[in-house]
Write a structure and sequence with these properties.
The protein is of the alpha+beta class. It has helices at residues 23-32, 79-86, 104-109, 148-151, 281-295, 333-347, 369-379, 388-397; strands spanning 16-18, 36-39, 53-56, 65-67, 70-74, 91-92, 126-132, 138-142, 160-167, 169-170, 173-182, 194-199, 205-213, 224-225, 249-250, 270-277, 299-307, 322-329, 353-354. β4 and β5 form a beta hairpin. α5 runs antiparallel to α6.
Length: 398
């Protein structure tokens, strides 16, 4: 069996992939496995999700259930499919990631985020969850319960998350406008509900994608308003991208950068991302502009965004508003690792921490990693859900 991640840069060493169809079947698989990890949509770039045995949730029932201000469903569901299920009820999530193709369980477990100065990462919408521990027991927890803030961003180290309950709100419309060649000193990241700045670290910002809710005034940014739709990566067709040019549409068809019916850049890239406290954002951007010429040959594009603070133990936004600096690299593992030495030399002195699901070199730090390690040992005393990647990076984070 040869199984690779979404990008194709990592080959899993697992000897078996289980596809349980029921909760009881999953409990038996997990309890019997010496080492096991849950396989999401494989949109990670390292060995974080590898193990001797893997479990896919794709065949588990989605069972989407709306209950007032929340929606509950199987954790293997992809965000695009969840959005489609919410549409008839006139409901929405507070935010979405760039790709609607990723599984909710995987995105939550790694604190994947979306954008917006007042928007928490996707895990902050979790109101409750259910997981199966390595003993086969089912654990359910809700916001406000002891250790809940440690359970949510769990890196798959606590058990197999089977169901997730998210906060929902009334559906809303969003319009995307793109501005080209925006000056670096322009205060763009708070210009609307969700903002992404795309750059290759040249003299100005190549593009700023401004995503405004219907109740917000249209943005006015310095730079040139785009008259055609764009892809974030220069020179690539915008066919796979969500509509732009200020045309309003449903939240789920505007907040992601890409359409659900396309799978953009599959197997053609490696990704990295680092988060700095927002108060040090200007320093981070200056540091990146200084090394831009050195990393540019390996860089397809960078994306700069903001995310609001939260209280989740392993979240990069733990107790701090952050600025995110994302890198879409060409698929050259050795070359990217060389470039990351320059990136980390520039950003780590500013207190930067990496995205758990992306490629990084230096072990991360985390707000309450010590408490999380203790929680993992309590829920999984035999270490079935841990692997070499987690042991190495969690111990360093603590």
């Amino acid at each position: 069996m040869t199984l690779r991640n979404w990008a194709g840069n990592y080959e899993y060493a697992a000897g078996a992939v289980h596809r349980p169809r029921t909760l009881d079947e999953l409990r038996r698989v997990v309890a019997a496995a010496p080492q096991v990890r849950v396989l999401g949509s494989r949109h990670s770039f390292t060995g974080i999700g590898d193990a001797a045995e893997l479990v896919s949730m794709e065949d588990m029932p989605a069972d989407v259930t709306v209950d007032g201000a929340t929606v509950s469903f199987g954790a293997g569901l992809k965000y695009g499919d969840l959005a489609a299920a919410l549409q008839p009820a006139g409901l929405a999530l507070h935010n979405l990631a760039s790709l609607p193709h990723i599984s909710v369980g995987g995105a939550v477990a790694t604190a994947t985020h979306g954008s917006g100065e007042r928007n928490g990462n996707l895990a902050t919408a979790v109101a409750a969850l259910e997981l199966v521990t390595s003993s086969g027991d089912v654990v359910r927890a809700a916001r406000g319960d002891a250790d809940f803030d440690g359970l949510v961003v769990g890196l798959g180290a606590l058990g197999a998350v089977t169901r997730v309950t998210l906060d929902v709100e009334p559906a809303y419309e969003v319009a995307t406008r793109v501005f080209e060649h925006v000056p670096w000193d322009a205060p763009v990241l708070g210009a609307a509900y969700s903002v992404s700045a795309f750059t290759r670290w040249d003299e100005d910002i190549d593009m700023v994608w401004v995503k405004s809710r219907a109740d917000e005034p249209p943005p006015e940014l310095p730079g040139t308003p785009a008259t055609v739709e764009h892809h974030p990566i220069p020179g690539i067709s915008a066919e796979s991208c969500t509509p732009q040019l200020g045309v309003p549409g449903p939240w789920s068809a505007r907040l992601p950068h890409f359409r659900m019916e396309f799978t953009p850049s599959n197997g053609e890239e490696i990704q990295s991302e680092y988060f700095v406290e927002r108060s040090r954002g200007a320093e981070a951007l200056d540091a990146m502009r200084a090394i831009g010429p050195r990393i540019r040959p390996l860089l397809q594009v960078s994306e700069v965004r903001t995310i609001a603070a939260d209280r989740l133990w392993l979240s990069p936004q733990y107790e701090r508003d952050t600025l995110a600096v994302h890198f879409t690299w060409v698929r050259d593992q050795a070359g990217v690792e060389r470039a990351l030495r320059d990136v980390e030399e520039a950003l780590l002195p500013l207190g930067a921490v990496p995205h758990w699901g992306k490629l990084f070199l230096a072990p991360p730090r985390a707000g309450r990693a010590g408490d999380f390690i203790a929680l993992a040992q309590r829920l999984d005393p035999r270490g079935a859900f841990r692997n070499d990647w987690l042991e190495r990076n969690l111990q360093a984070a603590g």
